[in-house]
Specification:
Layout (H helix, E strand, L loop, with lengths): L1 H20 L2 H12 L2 H7 L1 E3 L5 H9 L5 E3 L4 H14 L7 E4 L12 H7 L2 H16 L5 E2 L23 H15 L9 E5 L18 H8 L1 H8 L4 E4 L13 H11 L5 E3 L8 H4 L5 H10 L5 E2 L3 H11 L5 H17 L18 H14 L1 E5 L11 E6 L25 H11 L3 E5 L11 H11 L4 E7 L20 H10 L4 E7 L6 H6 L2 E6 L5 H9 L78 E3 L3 E5 L7 E10 L5 E11 L10 E10 L4 E9 L5 E7 L2 E7 L5 E6 L9 E3 L4
Parallel strand pairs: 1-2, 1-8, 2-3, 3-4, 5-6, 6-7, 10-11, 10-12, 12-13, 13-14
Antiparallel strand pairs: 9-14, 15-17, 16-17, 17-20, 18-19, 18-23, 21-22, 23-24
């Protein structure tokens, strides 16, 4: 009896001690969970769009059976709906309002692919912070951004929403966006997406199947998600795709093994729009009830507009198919998300009139557009000479398109606030009477095939000294479900370029698009090429400043530009193969007629074109030249992970203009446990160097920075682990991924 009392006393003290050590957050959520009914718990796992069947959804809110609403942007309407939850539901749990805000709310910044082209994470963070400032005024506290899917296929429309083809660059940019959104006190919860492998869809077709080996998944596609979570991302979105046979909404390996157990993440896991219900057409589940079962057991915590939890979770609990503890864990995640956003204390939007388009936001949007523009070619015509009389023809379907220059997925944009290139050059001419401009669009939209318009532009071109041809893609041609089988400029733009060049006048081609286009012929024809991934509200002043030399271009390609679609997928950090391409290529027109069958060249290439892209990853010109010294490497010895490698070099601006350069550090492991890519980006720095001056750049790597995921098979079972091989390495500090600078060789001993 005495021992029983001692044991009971010990258990009571242990329970008391555990309660004392619980945080205020945990105690608050525990108390709320204990008072919630099953229906109220399930309600917290539902996210709905209230724009249809409004009366029924409002009743669900009163009953505490909705956790989140999205696509409510009017503050007064948002507050009205929030009062239903806070003041009329039994427990008063607030809703969290969400919205797709990808690259700006009202003030629109370059699309994420363009932001990546700036190679300036500090600028990207500031843009995200300004976006949060504009957004949270309306009561929206959750955005489904950033997208950190590493993309190797420009046919895929959603390449516009990400940060390119490299996991390191994507990781840095994604983390910057999260810091900007979630900067206190005006916190906009970030949602890192799409977890995972979504961008590897077969044939570049959205929602399509993906097959990714585990080591490639971990080396290429998962690092940006881990970096985002390390930066504090408050939520994660499941991807649409079927990953190796199991869509992410029901993928326990992704959602439990990796996200929860391996990464120890507490971020809220939300479906994409109906991605849980999509398990039925995927062929994974027989019906929507089974889809609900698979999703909840894989810890998909909030169902976005799929209604599978609303319709079936109560039945699954009653039938003992789902453990209520799993539901409690998911509800706890939703409540924790709301608690950390401060919604229990401050659930409503401000009553003050929201302020948009501040001078700070517009200046930042212009800087972002300037830094993201990439000079791909220049025969010396740029910057334009504005000191003498000049007649400029501004033409092309993208020259005066307030809406199209904003890019994809900008639901709250107001095109009337856009400043177009025509607007910007008109303002310049009002200040500088030596410049004369004429605007003749030729084509009225990017898919236009009107020959009459082209003829008018051609006739105007004959009267001009210089032609500025603004071309590319409308915003609707990129983004979700906007994949292309051909990447030529649509409509009659190619024909228009031919007509303009035929006048004999120099043509400067300015491309605004949501992806790399196959423009090899047009690049050859043009005197200069400036590429701007849909640059946003302030596109006009930004591009005009670069063209006239007020600003030196500093953008670099965040993705490889193919010459033709048949080269895709084409990316810089590829494997070498056992038969790398040789210098002696026999192309299709070189093959003799009646030639005997043999392996021509016996190397990895295409008959129609060499393997080289049109433009390499990391490439971009400016109005000066930079010279790189031979890199130096020093080692600070330590035990295993504590060893540090420092690589540095001097960069000299040998021209007569100040400009910014992006110094890029690449590494190549020459051999190892597994074959490795021909080069990998390991760091970068964007630095401004005055004319004639030299700056030293220094990069520091650890042993882990040179590691990768290994795989072995024990009988039929695979296991993977992260490690760094003892091997020889080459390091380059270079202006782009061609790595034409001198490398340094290093043989570490661990």
């Amino acid at each position: 009896m005495r021992w029983n009392k001692l044991i009971l006393t010990f258990l009571i003290l242990s329970l008391f001690t555990a309660c004392m050590h619980k945080s205020e957050e945990d105690r608050f959520i525990d108390d709320l969970l204990q008072r919630m009914t099953i229906e109220e718990k399930i309600g917290q796992l539902n996210q709905l769009d209230p724009s249809w069947d409004t009366a029924a959804k409002e009743q669900l809110i009163r009953e505490g059976r909705v956790g989140s609403l999205f696509n409510v942007v009017d503050p007064q309407e948002l507050n009205r709906l929030q009062r239903l939850a806070v003041e009329q539901s039994r427990l008063g749990i607030p809703l969290v309002f969400a919205r797709d805000i990808i690259h700006g709310f009202r003030t629109i910044y370059p699309i994420p692919l363009g932001q990546a082209a700036s190679w300036d994470p500090e600028l990207v963070e500031k843009a995200a912070q300004q976006t949060a400032v504009e957004t949270v005024q309306t009561g929206i506290r959750w955005t489904f951004s950033p997208m950190v899917d590493v993309a190797h296929d420009p046919r895929w429309g959603r390449i516009a929403e990400g940060y390119g083809e490299d996991p390191f660059l994507t990781s840095v940019m994604g983390a910057a966006v999260i810091r900007g959104y979630q900067n206190e006190p005006l916190s906009l919860a970030a949602c890192v997406k799409h977890f995972a492998g979504y961008s590897a869809s077969e044939a570049g077709r959205d929602y399509n199947t993906t097959w990714i080996p585990e080591t490639q998944l971990r080396d290429i596609y998962l690092p940006p998600f881990k970096a985002a979570l390390d930066a504090g991302a408050m939520s994660v979105m499941c991807a649409f795709n079927n990953l190796n046979g199991t869509p992410p909404s029901a993928n326990k390996h992704l959602n439990i093994d990796i996200l929860r157990h391996e990464w120890h993440s507490s971020a809220l896991l939300v479906s994409d729009w109906g991605s849980g219900a999509d398990l039925v057409p995927h062929g994974l589940c027989a019906d929507r009830e089974e889809a609900a079962l698979r999703c909840i057991n894989a810890r998909m915590e909030m169902d976005m507009q799929g209604n599978i939890y609303h319709d079936y979770l109560s039945k699954l609990l009653n039938d003992k198919m789902v453990n209520e503890q799993i539901v409690n864990e998911c509800v706890r995640s939703v409540l924790r998300f709301k608690y950390r956003l401060g919604l229990f204390e401050h659930p409503y939007a401000t009553e003050q009139t929201p302020t948009f388009y501040s001078s700070e936001a517009l200046a930042l949007a212009q800087q972002a557009a300037e830094e993201s523009a990439i000079l791909l070619k220049n025969n010396g015509i740029l910057p334009l000479d504005t000191s003498s009389a000049c007649h400029i023809l501004i033409t092309g379907p993208m020259a005066h398109q307030p809406k199209e220059q904003l890019g994809t997925w900008v639901f709250d944009a107001q095109p009337e606030h856009s400043v177009t290139p025509v607007d910007a050059f008109t303002a310049i001419c009002e200040r500088n009477h030596k410049l004369k401009i004429r605007f003749e669009p030729g084509l009225t939209f990017s898919r236009d095939n009107d020959s009459a318009g082209i003829a008018k532009a051609r006739d105007a071109a004959r009267q001009a000294d210089i032609i500025l041809f603004f071309c590319g893609e409308e915003a609707i041609l990129s983004g979700e479900a906007r994949c292309r089988a051909e990447l030529n400029m649509p409509g009659a733009q190619n024909r228009m370029m031919n007509e303009l060049v035929a006048t004999g006048k120099p043509v400067v081609m300015i491309v605004m698009a949501g992806r790399p286009l196959t423009i090899a012929r047009e690049v050859e024809q043009a005197a200069a090429v400036l590429y701007a991934f849909h640059p946003g509200t302030m596109a006009g002043p930004a591009l005009a400043n670069i063209l006239t030399g007020k600003v030196s271009p500093s953008g670099k390609t965040p993705v490889t530009f193919p010459k033709m679609v048949g080269q895709i997928p084409l990316y810089y950090n590829r494997m070498n193969t056992g038969r790398p391409v040789s210098d002696q290529l026999m192309l299709i027109d070189d093959i003799p007629v009646g030639c005997e069958q043999f392996s021509i060249g016996a190397s990895s290439y295409w008959l129609e074109t060499p393997v080289e892209p049109l433009f390499h990853f990391g490439f971009g010109l400016t109005y000066t030249n930079f010279e790189y010294s031979e890199p130096q490497i020093t080692v600070t010895e330590g035990k295993n992970e504590t060893t540090r490698f420092t690589i540095s070099c001097d960069i000299t601006n040998t021209g007569n203009r100040a400009a910014s350069e992006v110094a890029q550090l690449y590494a190549r492991q020459l051999y190892g446990y597994m074959a490795r890519p021909i080069k990998e980006l390991k760091g970068f720095q964007k630095i401004n160097i005055p004319a004639g001056e030299t700056r030293t750049v220094t990069f520091t790597l650890t042993r882990a920075d040179l590691g990768y995921w290994h795989e072995a098979y024990d009988d039929l079972n695979s296991r993977v682990w992260f490690d760094t091989d003892t091997a020889d390495f080459l390091f380059w500090i270079a202006p782009d991924s061609r790595c034409q600078t001198t490398p340094c060789h290093f043989s570490p001993c661990y």
